[in-house]
Amino acid sequence: MNRKPLKGIHHVSALTANASENFSFYTKSLGMRLVKKTVNQDDTSVYHLFYADERGNPGTDLTFFEIPRAGRTYHGTNAVTTTGLRVKSNDSLIYWKKRFEKLTIEHDNIEVLKDRKTLAFRDHEGQRLRLISDENNQGVEGGIPWEGSPVSTEHAIVGLGPVELTVSRIERTANVLTDVLGFREGASYTKPSTQQNVRVFETGEGGTGAEIHLIEEREMERERPGRGSVHHVAFRVENTDELHKWVNVLDENHLPNSGFIERYYFRSLYFREPNGILFELATDGPGFEGDEDFEVLGEKLSLPPYFEERRTEIEAKLKPLPTKEGE
Asked: Could you tell me whether strands 278-286 and 230-237 are parallel, antiparallel, or unpaired per DSSP bridges?
């Protein structure tokens, strides 16, 4: 079937046990913009929060489902083990290291991975994140920093970088990436801190916004997810017509999947690769301004039209989450 290549990383969705603390960390400490405060469409009793660049351009969204009773994460294999966040330059990493020290955010030293300078850190719940310098990046462009951020636009986070997966049987995942999803395998590298071999796969224009970094750990137990773990990673599809083609591709490859799903802000398709990691394919549009103006994105609880008649019921189950001055 004649389909266009996936364009890169669309979003990463993770778990938090406390929406208020999560909002504070990602907007105040990391300076990302909350572009949408909505609910989990599969469980409307909990929040779904979207942090991104100035308007939630595709490839910039780090999202969180609030699960108030989520326990701790027991790290292991067959999971998304690090989410990359792009910054513009090597100097930005120096800025962020000083900022992390000032804010007492747990972090490592700056190190070079795949000829790029990086800085690994953890959020208040142990979410594993890594800043990636785009100084020498060639490939998918980053997003546009939000001018209302407490972080200067010079050093702001401009999108999602490489996503690291750790799996027990690497060829199973590698084959889905290349043979089904159309990724290209590039040069591998060794992580200096752990001496793990990392295989790199890229799609579309390539570069930091279009890479999966794959590690094999056969002896580790399967990760037990909780607060601070990743729920799924999503890849960019140009439009709805292309997404329907991908439904057919998965069916032809006998990969059980959700089929086409309407998410209002984008359209989606979900499936699990053979090691059990949840993948999503998501369209670049329509975007987040269909129910809110640019200037006030994320300030109120947004519900897709098909949930609007249940607003009173839904709001009654949610703990208030102030996301603007005066609330």
From this structure: parallel
- Angle formed at CA 224 by CA 250 and CA 61, multiple of 5 degrees: 60
Tens-digit pLDDT profile for residues 204-249: 999 999 999 999 999 999 999 999 999 999 999 999 999 999 999 9
C-beta separation of 47 from 65 below 8 A: yes
Task: Reduce the DSSP state of residue 92 to 3 states and report it.
Answer: helix
Q: Model pTM?
A: 0.97
- Residue 206 makes CB contacts below 8 A (sequence gap 6+) with 138, 139, 140, 184, 186
Whether the bond into 286 is cis, omega within 30 of 0: yes
- CATH number (domain holding residue 62): 3.10.180.10
In a domain, 66, yes or no: yes
Query: If we measure between CA atoms, which residue out of 2, 281, 284 comes closest to residue 140?
Result: 284
Number of folded domains in the chain? 1
| Residue-number span of the structural domain to which 225 is assigned | 9-317
Name the percent of the chain lying above pLDDT 90: 96
Nearest in space to 163 (alpha carbons), one of 226, 64, 93, 233: 233
pLDDT digits (tens, 9 = 90+) for 26-36: 999 999 999 99
Within a domain: 4 = no
Per-residue three-class SS string for 247-296? HHHHHHCCCCECCCEECCCEEEEEEECCCCCEEEEEEEEECCCCCCCHHH
